[in-house]
Write a structure and sequence with these properties.
- The complex is a heterodimer.
- Helices cover 40% and strands 17% of the residues of chain A.
- Chain A is built from 13 helices and nine strands.
- In chain A, helix 1 crosses helix 10.
- The mean pLDDT of chain A is 94.
- At the A-B interface, helix 2 and helix 13 of A face helix 3 and helix 11 of B.
Chain lengths: 310, 283
C-alpha cells in the first residue's frame, strides 16, 4: 500500500490493511513514498514493486492502461457523486471537500458565505490562504465567483479564472503543503482560506477560531489503483474491494474525517468531526470533474505556474 | 620515465572518480537531454517542441532569471559572512578555531529539510524572532514568504561550502607578506586589497562557485520559506515530473539551466583570467 505517509497513512493502514490481513492472511506492507514520477519510472522499467497506490482520479483517468491496471471492482455501492464513468482503473475510497474557512473574530456578524465573498476584498478585507497547486480548488472557486453554476462550472474558463485570481493576488498567502494550511490558520497569518476539510477540522480541533462556509464547497475524492505490471494483481484487487467496504470506510472516517464513498457507510466520529464530513454537505457542493482535469491538467498547470510564480 | 607513463599513472588515480561521475552524473544527464527531444506530452509533438514550450510559456523565463538572481544574492551574502569568519578562524588560537569549525560543521550534518523547518519555527508569525524584535520596538512582518526568508534559509545551509574552502586557502596565506608590504610603505587597507585579497582569491572563487551552483538547484528551502513568487526553476521542474509526468519538458528545463550555468561560469572564468593577467602584467 503506497501513499503519502504521516498520520493519514497510519489511519489508512488500520482501516483497510489490518482487516484485510485478518480476513485473508495476506500481509500488506506500507510504503509512504508515493510519487508519480517514481511510479512512471517503475512501470517503464518493467520492475514494479508497488501493488496498491493512492492516486488522484485525474491521473487514473488519464493513464488507465498505461500506468495503471484496469480493475473490475464492483462500484454499485459507491455514491455516484464520487464515480467517474470513464475511470476503469481507480477505485474511489474516500472523499474530501475544499472549503472556505474564515476567522470568526475578524468577521463577526458579517461573515463571508460564498466564493464571491472570498474574492471580495473590499467588503471582506484580510489575507487569503490558497494552496499552491493547480488542482487545489482555486480555479473552481474563481469560476464560481465569476458566476458559474454547478452545471456550467466545467469546462473551466482557465483564462477568466486566472484573471479573477489576479484581482486578489496581493492578498493571497500561498501554502505549499497541507500542513502549512493548518499552521496559517493557527498563527493567524490568514483571515480566510480555502483548504481541505480534513485539515480545516484539524485546525479547529487544535484551537483555530475559524468557521466553515459550505456554499459551493468543492468536493473531490481519492482513488486507489493497481500499477500496471504489479506482481500481485489478484491480491491487490481484493484489497481494493476491501477499501470499498462501508465498514472499513467508516473506520477510516472515525479516525480522520475523510468522507466515505460507500452509500451504506455509517460514520460515528463525534459531532465536530462529522460537521466536517463532505457527505453532509453534498447539497450545496460542486464536484471536481476528473475527466476535465485529466484532459486539461497541462494547460491549467502552465497557466497556474505563470500566475502563482509570476 | 616518459611523460605518457606519468600521465597514465595519473589517469589510474582519477579512474574511480571518473567512473562514478560517468555513471551517476553523465548517464542521467544524457538521459534527460535525450528525453528533452524524444519525450513529449501534447500539444508538443517532436523535435525542439519542449524547448519552444519552455520559452513560449509565460512564467518560465522569469523564474529562470530569478533562480540566477537568488543564487547570486545568496553567494554574495555567503562571501560577506564567510570571509570575515574564515579570516577570524586564521587569527584565533587553536581552541577557538576548533569551536568555530564545530559551529560551521554541526548544522552541516543536520538534514536540509529539518533546518528549513527550524527556520519556519524561528521566523513565523508570532515566533521567537518576531517576539524579540517587537520587544525591541521593531514591528515588521515575518520574512517567511519573501525573498528574505529564502535568502536566510539558503545562506545558513550553504555557508559551510563558503567557509571551508576559504579557510583552507586563508590558512596557507603567508601573513608576513602583509608585514613586508607595510614595511615598504603600503597602508593597511592597500596591503589588504593588493596583497591579501589576490592571495585569498582561489578560496573566494572556489567557495563562490560551490555556493552559486548548489543554490541553483534548491527547491525545498524556497518552497518552505518563500512564496510561489520566490520559487526557483527546480520547483517548476518538480511539478513537470511529479504532477504532469512531462519528462521531456523537465529535460528541456534542466538542459536550459545547465547551459545557462555553464555559459555563466565560463564567462566568469574568462573574465577572471583577464583581470588576473592584468594584475600581473598590467599597471
Amino acid at each position: 500500500m503506497v501513499a503519502y505517509g504521516g498520520a493519514s497513512q497510519d489511519a489508512l493502514a488500520s482501516a483497510y490493511a489490518a482487516p484485510f490481513e485478518q480476513q485473508t492472511g495476506a500481509s500488506v506492507t506500507q510504503d509512504p513514498t508515493f510519487d508519480y514520477a517514481k511510479l512512471a519510472a517503475m512501470v517503464k522499467a518493467g520492475n514494479v514493486s508497488w501493488d496498491v497506490v493512492e492516486a488522484d482520479p485525474f491521473s487514473t483517468v488519464a493513464n488507465c492502461g498505461t500506468l495503471y491496471q484496469p480493475v473490475t471492482v464492483n462500484l454499485s455501492g459507491i455514491d455516484p457523486h464520487y464515480v467517474d464513468s470513464k475511470d476503469h482503473c481507480g477505485v474511489p475510497a474516500d472523499t474530501y471537500s475544499i472549503v472556505l474557512m474564515y476567522d470568526k473574530s475578524k468577521y463577526g456578524n458579517h461573515p463571508p458565505t460564498s466564493w464571491a465573498d472570498f474574492f471580495n476584498t473590499k467588503e471582506f478585507p484580510g489575507k487569503r490562504g490558497v494552496f499552491n497547486y493547480v488542482v487545489g480548488g482555486a480555479l473552481e472557486a474563481a469560476s464560481l465567483a465569476n458566476g458559474a453554476t454547478p452545471s456550467t462550472l466545467y469546462p473551466i474558463n482557465i483564462k477568466a479564472a486566472i484573471a479573477k485570481l489576479n484581482t486578489i493576488k496581493p492578498d493571497i498567502v500561498f501554502y505549499d503543503t497541507l500542513g502549512q494550511s493548518v499552521e496559517d490558520l493557527l498563527s493567524g497569518s490568514v483571515s480566510m482560506a480555502m483548504l481541505w476539510s480534513t485539515r480545516a477540522y484539524a485546525a479547529v480541533q487544535a484551537g483555530a477560531d475559524f468557521a466553515p462556509a459550505w456554499d459551493g464547497n468543492i468536493q473531490g475524492w481519492d482513488s486507489w489503483a493497481i500499477p500496471k505490471g504489479s506482481q500481485h494483481v489478484a491480491a491487490a484487487e481484493a484489497l481494493l474491494k476491501e477499501m470499498t467496504s462501508p465498514q472499513a470506510q467508516a473506520n477510516l472516517a472515525a479516525n480522520i474525517p475523510f468522507g466515505p464513498t460507500a452509500k451504506a457507510a455509517k460514520v460515528n466520529a463525534g459531532a465536530l468531526a462529522e460537521q466536517y464530513l463532505p457527505n453532509n454537505h453534498t447539497s450545496d457542493a460542486v464536484f471536481i470533474n476528473q475527466d476535465w482535469w485529466a484532459k486539461n491538467l497541462n494547460a491549467a498547470s502552465d497557466a497556474w505556474n505563470a500566475f502563482a510564480s509570476g | 620515465m616518459s611523460a605518457i607513463a606519468r600521465w597514465r599513472r595519473w589517469e589510474l588515480g582519477l579512474l574511480p572518480a571518473a567512473v562514478w561521475l560517468l555513471v551517476f552524473y553523465g548517464y542521467p544527464v544524457a538521459g534527460s537531454l535525450v528525453q528533452s527531444v524524444t519525450s513529449f506530452v501534447p500539444p508538443e509533438r517532436s523535435g525542439l517542441d519542449n524547448y519552444r514550450w519552455f520559452f513560449d510559456t509565460p512564467g518560465n523565463v522569469p523564474v529562470l532569471v530569478r533562480t540566477f538572481e537568488t543564487a547570486l544574492l545568496v553567494t554574495v551574502i555567503c562571501v560577506l559572512i564567510g570571509f570575515p569568519y574564515a579570516y577570524l578562524m586564521t587569527t584565533v588560537g587553536s581552541r577557538w578555531r576548533s569551536i568555530m569549525l564545530a559551529v560551521v560543521l554541526l548544522p552541516f550534518w543536520t538534514s536540509l529539510l529539518v533546518r528549513s523547518f527550524a527556520w519556519i519555527g524561528l521566523l513565523e508569525q508570532g515566533g521567537p524572532v518576531q517576539r524579540v524584535l517587537s520587544a525591541l520596538g521593531v514591528t515588521h512582518g515575518t520574512p517567511i514568504g519573501t525573498v528574505g526568508g529564502v535568502a536566510i534559509g539558503m545562506t545558513q545551509i550553504l555557508l559551510p561550502f563558503m567557509v571551508l574552502p576559504l579557510y583552507a586557502v586563508l590558512r596557507a596565506v603567508d601573513r608576513t607578506l602583509l608585514t613586508a608590504a607595510s614595511s615598504l610603505g603600503a597602508a593597511p587597507r592597500t596591503a589588504f586589497i593588493r596583497i591579501y585579497i589576490p592571495l585569498a582569491a582561489p578560496g573566494l572563487i572556489a567557495g563562490s562557485v560551490l555556493v552559486f551552483v548548489l543554490a541553483l538547484g534548491f527547491f525545498v528551502t524556497p518552497a518552505l520559506l518563500g512564496s510561489p513568487q520566490n520559487s526557483l526553476i527546480s520547483q517548476l521542474i518538480v511539478t513537470q515530473t511529479n504532477t504532469l509526468l512531462a519528462f521531456g519538458r523537465a529535460g528541456a528545463m534542466s538542459a536550459v539551466l545547465l547551459a545557462a550555468t555553464v555559459l555563466l561560469l565560463g564567462a566568469a572564468a574568462l573574465l577572471l583570467r583577464r583581470t588576473r593577467l592584468q594584475y600581473v602584467y598590467g599597471s
